[in-house]
Specification:
The chain has 298 residues and is mainly beta. Helix content is 14%, strand content 35%. The two termini are 23 Å apart.
Length: 298
């Protein structure tokens, strides 16, 4: 693990945002992906630099799946992956930042693989993420795969060059959503009722928009669920998001307002729904845990 994998294989433009470092086949439709996590990151490391954010695990699992689709299942680089479901549970007490960059291993098993001719069109994979021998997360991901031409038809001619995002409204206080920088806040102050915010879509954000896109990326939607849970529980609650059970219903468009609503489901669980023009774009059940229970750096 002396270098990262080519960034194109995980659909990232920045080397710094590419986390997998190598991979190997361990059985039929079974693989192991090694990765490295930085000790500091504007989004994926806590403001006090002591803990990795669960969404770093999400992005690592997403990149690992994309890497294997291209390398092991021979999906061409111009094909697009569309997330259908992303369910992940993390163990935060094992996500402390240590004295050197962490080197997790992601063990992945693919199932429900469907082809049209020789072309992969959909699949599901389960992932166990281990760090220093401890399982820090389990994920279950379902996706579809389309060629560039089919994707273009699905998008009705929408491209990063032809779609303009809405103006970015002012944001909540960064501390209220567990962020250090105002630039990383993705929710605007409530306009209609408590627990109801407009999504802030800043296409200049170097992590969410690592490269130009024609739609709002899934990781930004997940960040909105994370921040909605933080804003709903309050900065003094001692609770942090640790699990995300997400279903993506359709593309979230850049040129339409996106509304994020959070409701308390009880037992430390919150349901977050994102809508555009009254129709659900995604929904996510966010599980929380006591921050005080996390043993940073252990």
């Amino acid at each position: 693990m002396t270098a990262g994998v080519p960034r194109q294989l995980v659909h990232r433009a920045a080397i710094a945002e590419t986390f997998p470092t190598s991979w190997s086949r361990t059985g039929t439709d079974r693989f192991s992906v090694s990765a490295q996590w930085p000790r500091a990151h504007c989004l994926h490391v806590s403001p006090d630099r002591t803990a990795y954010d669960p969404l770093l695990v999400v992005e690592t699992v997403r990149q690992a799946g994309t890497l294997l689709n291209h390398t092991e299942y021979k999906v061409p680089l111009d094909h697009q992956f569309v997330l259908q479901e992303f369910r992940i549970t993390t163990v935060p007490e094992y996500l402390g930042v240590g004295p050197v960059p962490a080197e997790p291993v992601v063990d992945i098993t693919f199932s429900d693989i469907r082809h049209r001719g020789k072309r992969l069109v959909s699949a599901r994979y389960e992932a166990d993420v281990r760090l220093d021998g401890m399982r820090v997360a389990h994920a279950d991901v379902a996706f579809t795969c389309t060629s560039g031409a089919v994707f273009s038809r699905l998008r009705g001619g929408r491209t990063a060059d032809t779609v303009t995002a809405l103006p970015v409204p002012p944001g909540l206080l960064a501390a209220d959503v567990g962020r250090e920088s105002a630039a990383d806040v993705v929710l605007a102050p409530p306009q209609q009722a408590e627990g109801h915010w407009q999504l802030r879509v800043d296409t200049g954000h170097a992590v969410f928009f690592d490269h130009p896109l024609d739609h709002i990326p899934g990781m930004l939607l997940l960040e909105s669920a994370r921040q909605a849970a933080m804003a709903r529980t309050g900065p003094d609650s001692g609770l942090i998001p640790v699990s995300f059970d997400t279903t993506f219903h359709r593309f979230a468009e850049l040129d339409l307002p996106t509304w994020i609503e959070s409701t308390d489901e009880g037992d430390g669980t919150l349901k977050v729904v994102g809508t555009q023009e009254g129709s659900a774009v995604f929904e996510c059940v966010v599980g929380t845990a006591e921050r005080s229970a996390i043993l940073y750096g252990e």
